[in-house]
Amino acid sequence: MSNVRRTPMIAGNWKMNLTIAAGIELVKTIHYSHRHPGEVDVVVAPPFTAIRAVADTLNGSYISVAAQNIHWEASGAFTGEISGVFAKDAGADYVIIGHSERRQYFGETNETVNKKVKAAFGHGLVPIVCVGETDAEREAGRVHAVIKTQVEEGLAGLTQEQFGKLIIAYEPVWAIGTGKTATGEQAEEVHASIRELLVKLIGQEVAQKIRILYGGSVNAKNAKELLSFTNIDGALVGGASLKPQDFVEIIKSASA
Ligand code: 13P
Fold first, then answer.
1. Ligand 1, atom nearest to 178 Cα
2. pLDDT tens digits, residue range 14-52?
3. In this structure, which residue's CA is closest to atom 5 in ligand 1?
4. Which of 11, 60, 178, 233 could lock onto 211 through a cystine, CB 3.0 to 4.6 A?
5. Domain ranges across the chain
6. Is the pTM of this model over 0.85?
7. Quick one: which H or E segment has residue 49?
8. Which CATH number is correct for 9-255, 3.40.50.1010, 3.30.360.10, 3.10.560.10, 3.20.20.70?
C-alpha cells in the first residue's frame, strides 16, 4: 500500500518563543522568500498571544496556524486556560496536542490527550497528536509498548472520519532540542509500526490517509533524508522553525 499519496506537512512549533512583532516578521520572511511551495502543507504554531496577529498576516497565504495546546472544556472557571473555542476564534485551524513538554512539565496524560483531541474536533480544529518514548524507555526496549499505549489511549473513541483527518507526530523525547536526531531508519521503523497499529484499529483505507510527522532536531541538513522514507509524511520542527531560511529549506525538502 505504499502507493497511497499523502501531502507532506511541515509544521513549526515555536514553543514559548517570539513576540507578536517577531512572529509577524518571521512568517513574512518565510512567505516572501518562498512564494510557491508546491504540494506541501505548511503550519506554524505561535504562542497564544501571537495567533491572531500571525493568522491575520498569513491570511490568503499557503501557511496555516496552529495553537500549541488547548483545554478540553469549551469555557468556564479554568483560570489561565485557553479552549479550542478561543484558539479557533483567534485564527488557528490546527492544534498540537500532547507534546512531550506538556506531558513532562504539565502533567498531561493519555487520558487528557484524549479529551483534548475530542475537544479539538468539537471546535473545528485538526489535532496534531504527539507521541514518543523517552531515552530510558528506548533503553529498556519499550518503544513499541509506550507508543501503542499513547496511540490507543490518546485516540480512543474517535470516529473513522476524525481518524481520517488527524495528524500524528512521532517525537522521540531524547531527540527534542538535543541535536540528537533519530536516523531515518530508526524513525521509519517507528512510523511503520504506528501505521500498522492504525491499520489494526481502523482499517487499511483510513490508516493509509493519516499523516505521521517526525519531530526531534529536524534541521535544514537532515530534513531531506528523513522525508525520503515511505511513512515519514512531514516534520514537526522546533528550533529550526524559528530561523526563516532553515524553515524554508525544510519546506523545500518536503516539496522536492
Ligand atoms: P526541536 O526541533 O527543537 O528538537 O524540537 C522538536 C519539537 O519538540 C517540535 O515539537
1. 4
2. 999 999 999 999 999 999 999 989 999 999 999 999 999
3. 238
4. 233
5. 9-255
6. yes
7. helix 48-58
8. 3.20.20.70
